[in-house]
Structures are given as structure tokens and as C-alpha cells.
UniProtKB/TrEMBL annotation:
It comes from the Eukaryota. This is Nucleolus and neural progenitor protein. The lineage of its organism: Eukaryota, Metazoa, Chordata, Craniata, Vertebrata. It comes from Seriola dumerili (Greater amberjack). It holds the Pfam family NEPRO_N. Residues 429-441 have a biased composition (Basic residues). Residues 6-197 form the Nucleolus and neural progenitor protein-like N-terminal domain.
Length: 484
């Protein structure tokens, strides 16, 4: 695409005569007049104050958000819009269109040329060069529209997340205005291109001077653009029904005014104020039967929806069991994924999408000649579970990351259990040793107490006898000293 002549910023100007003299008549006059009118529309849109104001606002926002929003996706989308605007300025389309105005004869010159039969008009190389400019500008406008739409969606997404609400309101309003104005420029460029081709054929027929030899100009702008952008060139029909209704209302008003005037001439107009209608209002009405009917209808609706989903799942399971190859399985999975998306069954859709990827891999292996019947049997179980995920998932239906995570947790738990067991064993051995030591200490303490008791008893028994003997001896000595 970069090698195409229309995709250059500075398209080389043809080194040929920019104007030629040819026969001039009323049809040529009409073609030049319509060409100048379409050219003025494009220049008016490009030079409009509203567009320039929004472009200045875009520059100001990018200047302010350059540091704080450098990694933001909305900011990157705005930068892409800025690049398209800068490219439009650099290609100087308005200057080229102004040169076309200078080369075409004005109204007075066209009137004199009709009488003379000759006139100077832009040459074929000049018109072809201008057609390339218009094609490049149209492609740039379509790219700018896509960039504006993408930045608008990103800014709207941030608004849903409740982030920078005021800033995103300003950005979305600016982008919407830019989109509308750039679409208007694209539509006006399309009509200008059509008129350029009409005038180019006439000039080439009178003075053939081909400039483009390797590139042929498309017959229509819609053929040049992609289908999504070509749809923008179709002018939406105006509200014909509303205009018809307005015309009918105006006609009715006219008829009614005529009738009123005629009646006013004959006599006074009697206004019909209507008749009061008595309606029997019973405030004691019971609404329970009506509510019961509504409740029954809603219950029947949900019941029918549940039965419909159950029937669809049973049908899918039957198709899966009857599938003999992975290619048939892939077709059934694709159909079920679309149905789950329509029913907003996100969990089932994700599981079936995962199985569809596996099924494509198995289909490739099956096409090379491998026997995949055992895999197909296990795959049937996975597909049946994914259609109605209840209970634990099959091992093969789990993702590899989840399996690795579970194995890692299992090994960690096992290591913790082994550590706990070893610690309990060690503490048990220590407790046994402590109990044995305590028992020995108790036995030793008991034996020591018994020996000391026996010793005290023997000393106790020996000491009172000696005391008695000594006491008797002392008394005898006392009585002997007295003389008794």
C-alpha cells in the first residue's frame, strides 16, 4: 500500500502544461460549474472554524495529558487521531484545490468562452494529479474515522469504569464532533471525485496527455475504499414519511381554515364540548386473580425455558455420543457454542470453546493417520460434562495450569504432613525419656527417705534408755548426800 501513488504525502507534480485550450460549449460550462461547487464544499469543511477549534482542543488535551496519561489506551487512540490530522495538513489538499480554482475559468470568462467557442481549462495531467490527491485524502479520512471510533470506544469504556468522568465526557464529545465532520469531508470528496472524472474524460477526449501509466483511477470511490467505509458514502434518506405527514397536516389545516371561514361567513361556529361519560369505579376490586394469572404466566415461561435448555443439552449429548470422528465433534461443538452465546451461558461457552481448541488439535492428528478412538471416548465424557457442568470436572478437562497448581499444593501439603509427623515422633521420644528420668528420680528419692527413717528410729530407741539410766544415777546420788 505504501508504494501506491495516492498514499504519498507529497505527490510529485506533473512536469507538463497545467492548462490547455479546447472547444467550449454549454455542457463544458455546466461541468466546470458543478466541479467548482463541489470543490467549494470541500474547502468550506476543511477550513471551517468548528473543525479547527476541535483540532486545537485535541492538541491541548494531548499536551496536558502527555506525562500523566502516557500509558493510557485512550491517550494512545488520541495520538493516532492526531497523526491523521497532521498528515491531512501536510498533504496540503486545500492548496491543491485552490490551484484548481485558479486554473478553471470564472463565470464571466465562461460566458465569453461560450460565445468564442474556445477556452483554457486544466490539462489532463493536472486533473489526474488532483484525482490522486483526492483519493489519498479519502483514504486518510476513512482511517481517521476508524481511529476516532476506536478512541471513542476506549473513552466510553473508562466512563463505565467510573474513571476520569469529566475528562472522558470532554473526549467523547470532541471525538463525536470530529467523526461527523470527517465523514462530511469524506462524502464531499466522493462527489468531487465523481465530477473530476467526468471533466477528465472530456479533457482527455479533446487533448489526450496521459500522466498515470502504472495506475488506473477507480471508477467510483466506493470501489476504492473498504466495504465498511464505502457504506458511509451512502447518503441516508431523509425522513420522507415525516415530510409527507407534515404536508398532510398542512393540507388539513388549510381545509379546516377554509371551513371555519365559510362557517364564519354564514353564522357562528358551535364548539362541540362533548358529553360527560359516567364510569362505574369500584374501589373494592380484588387484584389477586390478575396477579395470580401473571405469576402463572411467568412460571410457565421459566419452566418452558428450562425444559428447552434441557432438551437442547440432551440433543447435544446424543450427537456427541454418536460422533465417530473429531471433525464431526468439532461441528457439533461449534453449533453448541453459538447456542450458548445466544442464551448467555458464559460458563458453558468457555468450557466448550476450550474443548473446541483441543478438538482441532485432535482433528489434525486424525488427518495424519493416527488412531484417535481412545481419545475420542474420553473426549465424549468431557463434552457431555461441559454441556451441563455439575460435579467435579474430569481430569482431562482441566487446564494444565490448574493441574500444575493442584499438584504443587498437594506436594506442599505432603511435605507439611511429613514435617509434622517427624516433629511429633521426635517430641514423643523426648517425652518418653523425660518420663523415665522422672521415674528414676522418684525411686531414688523414695529409697533415700526409707534409709533415713530407719536411722532415726534406731537413734530414737537408743537415746531414751541412756537418759533413763543417767536420771536414776543422779537421784541416788542426791538421796545419798542427804543421808537417806
Amino acid at each position: 500500500m505504501a508504494g501506491q501513488p495516492w498514499n504519498r504525502v507529497n505527490i510529485p507534480f506533473p512536469g507538463a502544461v497545467s492548462s490547455v485550450r479546447m472547444n467550449f460549449n454549454s455542457t463544458t460550462d455546466a461541468n466546470i460549474k458543478t466541479l467548482l461547487v463541489e470543490k467549494e464544499k470541500v474547502l468550506k469543511l476543511i477550513r471551517s472554524e468548528i473543525l479547527q477549534t476541535d483540532i486545537r482542543l485535541l492538541y491541548e488535551l494531548l499536551y496536558i495529558l502527555n506525562n500523566s496519561f502516557r500509558g493510557n489506551k485512550t491517550f494512545k487512540g488520541l495520538k493516532q487521531v492526531e497523526q491523521c490530522v497532521n498528515r491531512l495538513k501536510n498533504m496540503k489538499l486545500d492548496v491543491s484545490l485552490q490551484e484548481l480554482t485558479d486554473l478553471c475559468p470564472n463565470r464571466i470568462q465562461r460566458g465569453l468562452s461560450i460565445k468564442a467557442g474556445k477556452c483554457d481549462v486544466p490539462s489532463q495531467p493536472m486533473l489526474e494529479w488532483l484525482c490522486l490527491k483526492v483519493l489519498g485524502a479519502a483514504q486518510l479520512m476513512s482511517c481517521t474515522l476508524n481511529r476516532c471510533s476506536r478512541a471513542f470506544i476506549l473513552s466510553k469504556q473508562q466512563m463505565k469504569w467510573e474513571e476520569f468522568l469529566i475528562l472522558n465526557v470532554v473526549i467523547t464529545s470532541m471525538l463525536s464532533r470530529l467523526w461527523v465532520m470527517f465523514r462530511g469531508i469524506l462524502v464531499s470528496l466522493s462527489t468531487l471525485y465523481q465530477q473530476l472524472l467526468v471533466f477528465l474524460r472530456e479533457v482527455a477526449h479533446a487533448q489526450p496527455m496521459p500522466f498515470l501509466t502504472d495506475f488506473s483511477l477507480p471508477a467510483d470511490m466506493a470501489q476504492f475504499l473498504c466495504p465498511s467505509d464505502a457504506f458511509l458514502l451512502i447518503k441516508q434518506p431523509k425522513h420522507d414519511s415525516s415530510t409527507k405527514d407534515d404536508k398532510e397536516k398542512q393540507q388539513k389545516k388549510k381545509k379546516s381554515s377554509v371551513k371555519v371561514k365559510s362557517q364564519g361567513q354564514t353564522g357562528k361556529v358551535k364548539e362541540d364540548l362533548g358529553i360527560a361519560v359516567e364510569r362505574g369505579t369500584n374501589h373494592d376490586t380484588d387484584f389477586k386473580p390478575f396477579l395470580k394469572v401473571v405469576r402463572n404466566l411467568t412460571e410457565d415461561k421459566y419452566f418452558l425455558r428450562g425444559t428447552y435448555k434441557a432438551d437442547k443439552r440432551q440433543k447435544f449429548k446424543k450427537q456427541v455420543r454418536e460422533a465417530t470422528t473429531f471433525a464431526d465433534m468439532a461441528a457439533h461443538l461449534e453449533e453448541m457454542i453459538l447456542w450458548c452465546r445466544s442464551q448467555r451461558m458464559e460458563k458453558e461457552r468457555r468450557l466448550l470453546t476450550f474443548l473446541r481448541l483441543k478438538c482441532h488439535k485432535m482433528t489434525c492428528l486424525e488427518a495424519t493417520g493416527y488412531n484417535m478412538q481412545r481419545k475420542l471416548q474420553s473426549f465424549r465424557q468431557e463434552a457431555c460434562w461441559a454441556a451441563s457442568p455439575q460435579g467435579p470436572a474430569p481430569r482431562t478437562c482441566r487446564s494444565s495450569a490448574a493441574v500444575r497448581r493442584k499438584n504443587r499444593l498437594r506436594t506442599q501439603c505432603q511435605s507439611l504432613r511429613s514435617r509434622f509427623k517427624s516433629s511429633t515422633v521426635k517430641t514423643g521420644v523426648k517425652n518418653k525419656h523425660l518420663k523415665r528420668r522422672r521415674r528414676r528420680r522418684c525411686e531414688l528419692s523414695m529409697s533415700g527417705l526409707s534409709e533415713t527413717g530407719q536411722r532415726s528410729r534406731t537413734t530414737y530407741e537408743a537415746t531414751p534408755q541412756t537418759t533413763n539410766c543417767d536420771s536414776h544415777d543422779d537421784i541416788d546420788d542426791i538421796f545419798a548426800s542427804v543421808g537417806l
